[in-house]
Predict the 3D structure of the following.
Amino acid sequence: MSAIADPVELAGAAASGAAPLLTVRGLRAQYGSTQVLHGLDFDVAARGITTILGANGAGKTTTLRAVCNMVRTEGQITLAGERIDGLATENVVRRGVAHVPDGRGTFLNLSVEENLRLGAYTRRDRDAVAPDYERVYGYFPRLKERCKQQAGTLSGGEQQMLAVSRALMLRPRLLLLDEPSFGLAPKIVQHLFEIFRVINAQDGIGMLLVEQNASMALKLAQHAYLLETGRVVMSGPAEAIRNDESVRRSYLGY
Amino acid sequence: MDQLIHQILSGLATGGIYASVALALVMIYQATHLVNFAQGELAMFATYLAWALIQAGVPYWGAFAITVVSAFVGGVLIERIIIRPVENAPILAVVIVFIALLVIFNSLAGWIFSYTIKPFPSPFPAEPLFGNSYVSSHELGSMAITLVVLLMLFVFFRYTPLGLAMRAAAQNPESSRLVGIRVGWMLALGWGLAAAIGAIAGMMVAPTVFLEPNMMGGILLYAFAGALLGGIDSPGGAVLGGFIVGVLENVVGAYVGTELKLTVALIVIVGVLVVRPSGLFGKVHVTRV
């Protein structure tokens, strides 16, 4: 075993009593022969929001990709009591995991509307899909204005809204968010995080949020993990981490 | 003038064949970024199947339907069994597989059916429709069938969820997986569709060029020229390009000399590559370095 110290667990960590939505144990991932994650343990509580923070290259994006089996992964991943590790990406998605990927994953040559339609591709409840378009258009009226436009012509911020909307069209149980604030104007980030809060409260969608913008993420999430070179170095309730000055200074840089 | 109209109309008829094959090429190209050199031989082999069925006493349209379905299944199987294992192989390896398929199907056809030229029946009447003097019934009929096929494909890709998923899978496989699309199957379906389109083109062209193992060689070249002219990554462009090449080939053949027919295709290929590599409707590729 490695000589790495056990991660610091901040007090008050006892999460709600309900069984977690997502449980990850001993998660390892590698690109080619390079090991990127060295055995992560983390949970997302039912109806909870968990954030993973860390510097560039700490393995945040890889962690999300590992949950969807988009990289070579080892370890146990359990979604609502069901093992999902080893399932093909599309089957993980079909169990209700929506991923807003790094780089937004826009279908550039398709229209905005077609992008949303693809989000609902695996849903069989056709009647319930129609109102969902209106719902996401309600969250992001800009997308409605541009619904016939080719998605490649959207601005970066609009593509981010589209990526979130596409993920919501799946009606997921768990939403994986890879730096949703990336490249967005502060005002739009506020709006986006407000929508996450609303969705989480209304639909009870669990969220795993990876962010550079630590202060926004810690305000939204209930629980946080700090990642450093592929290891969890600290975890605890978001509030405790937010209020711990030494943590803020050494890990979060604000 | 009559002569010109006649040439243009029969150019449109052969152009429809080129357009179909060009579309089949583009469909595979969009998913793999490679030109499937075996596309023509697959079509030829399917046409032999139709011929064998007709010889066995199956009525024309019955043989037609069985052939199209078998070609579709064959295309899917080829993707699953032969192409899938080399999916992530270097480009050259895949190209070699395509060429191997070409040679294999060509030889297989020669071995099973012999290299002697065979007449292939046309489902359309021998005398021109409506007593016109410009186009034969077969030309008109094959044009109509091509247009119906193209229209059906357009509707399929544009308006059905499966068509949308296939377009998405070809464009952005990773994002497609993230919305739950089974990308592997979409690619296999693409091969099936391309093979089925090719089979129809083969059966439509066989009555004019006669059935033999090398009958699709030239046609593949014209189709490639058409696809390139329209833009190798643009289905609509490929169809238009196919029609343009068909007309061009016929008019040049009639007024300049039949010897230059194939040259037209090559001139188009070289011309497009020199002047406008992305074709009429293709995307200009910009790579960040």
